[in-house]
Each structure stands twice: as structure tokens, then as C-alpha cells.
Amino acid sequence: MSAYQSINPANNQLLKAWNEHDDAYAQQALKTADALYHSAWSKGDIQPRLQVLHRLADLIDQRVEELATIASKEMGKLIGQSRGEVKICSQIARYYAEHAATFLQPQPYASDVGDAWLEYHPIGVIVAVEPWNFPYYQLMRVLAPNLALGNPVLAKHANIVPHCADVFEKLVEEAGAPKGAWTNLFISTDQVADLIADPRVQGVALTGSERAGSAVAEQAGKHLKKSTLELGGNDVFVVLDDADIDEAVRQGAQARLSNCGQVCTAAKRFILHEKIADTFMAKFSAALQSATPGDPLDGKTTLGPLSSKDARDRLVKQVDEAVKNGARVEFGGRAIDGVGCYYQPTVLTGLTPDNPAYYQEFFGPVAQVYVVADDRAAVALANDSNYGLGGSVWTKDIARGRKMASQIETGMVFINSQSDTSAELPFGGVKRSGYGRELSDLGIKEFANQKLVVVAG
């Protein structure tokens, strides 16, 4: 039985299975990608590469409904959210098509040594290991900057979204990219490790779990390969006493339910100022409990399934363990009976640092709620985390919000908005949330040879 199966989590029906690729296929893919790196495609004029990105953006715009439906059926995302994901993929492709040439312009350095500048060049084949929760967006974050720069990519996608992986590869090919520019591989973790070890591979990008990130970083480090990691998060959503409560509730509930809570940067720890805690909790609880589970393809559904039976079962076990160690379930706390991988919107309180759940990421519609007396306590609690991906602060006093944002130890903080993403904004974290940045001008330089050239005298 293939490890790459498309199973609809709304009804647990097998849609299709894909054959895995053997070592010979993976090696041929690497050979093709490496040959492309050594060709004029990668090392010559950037414009042909940018034209591929322009065409790819246009193709995606023409197929929003088709692509969105595939994702919703395969991993359970609500159809409206899938459409949004597809549209941001075209935005990212178009962004790099329009801006990559500027980002890669030589950068002069003032120096007494001589006329000095920095050039940006591709480094070689990159291996990408990507997750299922945003099955197109995660791929586009790696493809667009590396295609513009000239790095060929070998991509191993999550084994529960093979249809998304397959259709993405075909889109890149249809857009005019040569063979080897982006290759989808249905391979095992051992085969990924073999690719990373190969001297023709020069970098590895991973988005996924801490465990997967650690394994990939270890292999990359062992073979002296550059790596970027975007791992988990237990992002804070800090609501201060002068916040717009109704808007904070609206976006907080949205953040916790979006993609059924399966978002690395979604609000997971709600830190409430004691003066507004009761008011926020009453409205927040009502908003979560009003969620309507159902078919992700039905526009009236507001709570889709978790991505798989395994994902639901992990969440069940995690919440049960949290309660066993002293957490209180304010409401929810159980899988939803019936067909499909659904879980009740849930609020946990009473979490203390001696409860393992206090430091864990809940990848599902589960919110942790804490109450604090002041801004200092909010920052201390926010930073008492092994993760450091994103977060948001809610206050009408922007100076107060900016001060708190500067003190929170994460890669991203949004003031008066839930965490968001856009092609022009850097994305990444610190601590166990990983290292490196994707998107923006920073993303295209992660796997670039930033070469200094000096004319002496």
C-alpha cells in the first residue's frame, strides 16, 4: 500500500493513491536538476525565469476553483479558505516576477579597500520538505524565490496531500519551467536524507514539526548544507484592557477556527488583561460555540474536519493529557461523533507550567486562556515558551502596543490584527519555531551566494 494517499477527512473516503518513487527515480531527478543548475537557465539572464513566474500566476488565477476544490477534498480546508490560499499563491508568484530582479541587483559597499559590491548568485539544487496544512502556499514560498534566483528544487510534500503536490508540479511545467526546475518526489524520509547527503544538493528548506525539523537540520549540519526551518508555534493573542473587544473576539475566534486551528501562526494562547477577561471570555466562547461543522465544500460550513484521523486522534490524546495534569475544559474537549475527523471547538484554562500542555502546540480548534494583571505579566507569559513564531497584541494605544511587540520574543508580531501573511512580508521565527526567513526580499537571499567582488585601489 502506498504511503501517498488522498483521503477526504470529511468522510474518510479514499480518493486516490499515488505510487512512491524509487531510488532510481529520485537519483535521475537530482541529476536533471543539477544539470539545469549548470546551464544558462540558472546562471544566465533572469528574465526567462521571471516570465515563467508571470505565466504561473496567470494559470493559478484561471484555476482558482479547481485548485481550491482539490485542497478542500484532500485535507479538509473550508472552500473559502482554500480559494484564499490559491489566490495568495498567484500573488507570491507575481511578486517575485515583478521584484526579484531588483532584489538581486548588485549592492555597493563603501570601503577604503576599493570599489566593492555584493552579487547574488544561485547555489545549486535545494531540497524542500513541506507540510499539508497549506498544500499550495507552502510550495510556492519555496518555488517562487528559488525559481527567480536559479536554484532547482526537489520537493517532498506531505504524504496526505499527493494530489496537491502532483497538480502543483504540472502547473509549474505548464508555465514553461524546464524539467528539473521543480520536481515533485513521492519519497520516504530515508530517501530525503540520502538527497541531503548528496554533494550536488546545496540546501534544504523544511516547514513542519519540531521532530522533522530536528532530523533534517541534523542531516544538513552533518553534511555542511545550509538549511531553513519553519516549525511549530504557540502564538499569543494578547488582549489589553483598552482593546476593541468585539473586533478582538471576532478575529480571535477566526484565528482559532481557521483551517480547523491547523495553522502554525494561529492564535493559540489567549492572554487577557484581568479588567476585560470576563467580557472577552463570554463573547469569545459564544463565537467558538456557534461554529457549524460540516462539508468543507459547503459555503455555510464554518468548522471543517482536521486533516486526518491521525491528526484528530493526536488532538484527543493531547487534550485528555492536559486535563489529567490539571487543565480545565470550559467547553468542548471531545471529538465530534459521526463520520469524519471533526473536533469540538474547545477552551482550556488553569494551565500551569508543570502541565506538559503549557508548552505544547495544539494543532486544532483548541484555545488556551490565561488572565494577567498588567503588561509586564503579559510579556513574561508570552515569552515563557519554547516557540517564537508569531503573535498579536490588541490595544487602542499604539505606542503601548509597539512597546509590547518589541518585547515579545517571536519572529513576527501584529498589532490589532491576527497573524497574517503576504508576499512582501518576511515570515519566520526564533527558538524552536526555527530559523531563516521566507517571502519578501529576505526569502530570495536565503539560498543565494552573496558574493563580494572588490576592485582594489
TrEMBL record:
CDD domains the UniProt entry points to: ALDH_SSADH1_GabD1
Domain Aldehyde dehydrogenase: 4-453
Source superkingdom: Bacteria
Cytoplasm listed as a keyword: no
Pfam family, one: Aldedh
Transmembrane segments: none
PANTHER family hit by this protein: SUCCINATE SEMIALDEHYDE DEHYDROGENASE [NAD(P)+] SAD (PTHR43217), SUCCINATE-SEMIALDEHYDE DEHYDROGENASE [NADP(+)] (PTHR43217:SF2)
Family to which the UniProt record says this protein belongs: Belongs to the aldehyde dehydrogenase family.
UniProt name for this protein: NAD-dependent succinate-semialdehyde dehydrogenase
Taxonomic classification: Bacteria, Pseudomonadati, Pseudomonadota, Gammaproteobacteria, Enterobacterales
